[in-house]
């Protein structure tokens, strides 16, 4: 009851002089009006809570720095700070629009992350090392043609020129390379899919 | 059953709203921890926890 008798101006003065309990009375006296005002603008409990907190941090800093002058009244001054912070909040959000998911629309149905996850990366590594092993088991001439055709993307004409065999031989080696690879895969029961 | 499409008025919703106790606790602690040091007309803020 006694707290009600002390005016805001008196409380502000005693807070500036170092009486911390005055701030507590001021906050409790005005918290509902200030918080409701902020909530009525932002309509989100968490954001309102953040802006309420920022408002009073500003109030505390200004009072402690001795920059507050009792021209107007305490509450309208705090309300003005809150109002400015609400405007800042909306400005920030228009620069960086926020999407929230609803039942009808989920932002992740439009956006996707194509980079492989840890499991896929692991499988890819495994497949590649198995494939290397399979290729290593091929006879040297077949392996040579396969490497040139698949990894160096050379035509059979180029392969035949470099290896000094006819195109038909190169084609035949490639064919046998693939047949042998299938056999090796079957023999070791390797799965080469991801 | 007919659906009620009208919204509760904002005044009723916001009338009883209060910030969380933790927020107020934080502010009071912040205030106790903050001290402004005045040196040669320059003001420095120090947070002592």
Oligomer: heterodimer
> What is the number of helices of chain A?
9
Quickly count the domains of chain A: 2
Counting helices, strands and paired strands, the structural category of chain A is: mainly alpha
Greatest interface (CB-CB under 8 A), with counts per chain: A-B, 22 and 21 residues
Question: What is the CATH level 1 assignment of the largest domain in chain A?
Answer: Mainly Alpha
Estimate the mean pLDDT confidence of chain A. 88
Q: What is the strand content of chain A?
A: under 5%
Q: What is the name of the CATH architecture of the largest domain in chain A?
A: Orthogonal Bundle
What is the overall silhouette of chain A? rod-shaped
Topology pattern of chain A, helix = H, strand = E: HHHHHHHHH
CATH topology of the largest domain in chain A: Rna Polymerase Sigma Factor, Chain: A
User: Level of helix content of chain A?
Assistant: over 70%
Biggest beta-sheet profile of chain B:
2 strands, antiparallel
Q: What is the strand content of chain B?
A: 15-25%
What's the arrangement of strands in the largest beta sheet of chain B? Answer: 1-2
Structural class of chain B: alpha+beta
Q: Quick one: how many beta strands of chain A?
A: 0
Average pLDDT number of chain B: 79
Distance between the termini of chain B: 58 Å
The major beta sheet of chain A can be summarized as: none
């Amino acid at each position: 009851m006694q707290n009600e008798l002390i005016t805001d101006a008196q409380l502000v003065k005693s807070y500036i002089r170092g009486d911390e309990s005055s701030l507590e009375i001021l906050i409790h006296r005005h918290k509902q009006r200030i918080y409701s005002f902020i909530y009525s603008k932002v309509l989100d409990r968490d954001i309102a809570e953040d802006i309420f907190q920022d408002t009073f941090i500003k109030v505390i800093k200004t009072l402690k720095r001795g920059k507050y002058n009792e021209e107007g009244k305490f509450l309208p001054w705090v309300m003005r700070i809150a109002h400015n912070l609400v405007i800042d909040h909306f400005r920030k959000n228009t620069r960086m629009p926020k999407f929230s998911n609803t039942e009808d629309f989920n932002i992740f149905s439009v956006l996707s992350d194509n980079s492989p996850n840890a499991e896929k990366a692991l499988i890819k590594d495994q497949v590649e090392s198995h494939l290397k092993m399979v290729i290593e088991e091929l006879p040297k001439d077949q392996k040579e043609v396969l490497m040139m055709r698949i990894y160096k993307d050379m035509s059979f004409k180029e392969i035949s020129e470099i290896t000094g065999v006819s195109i038909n031989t190169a084609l035949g080696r490639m064919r046998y390379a693939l047949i042998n690879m299938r056999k090796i895969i079957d023999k070791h029961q390797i799965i080469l899919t991801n | 059953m007919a659906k009620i499409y009208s919204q509760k008025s904002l005044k009723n919703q916001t009338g009883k709203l209060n910030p969380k106790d933790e927020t107020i606790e934080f502010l009071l602690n912040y205030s106790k921890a903050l001290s402004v040091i005045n040196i040669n007309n320059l003001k420095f803020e120090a947070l002592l926890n």
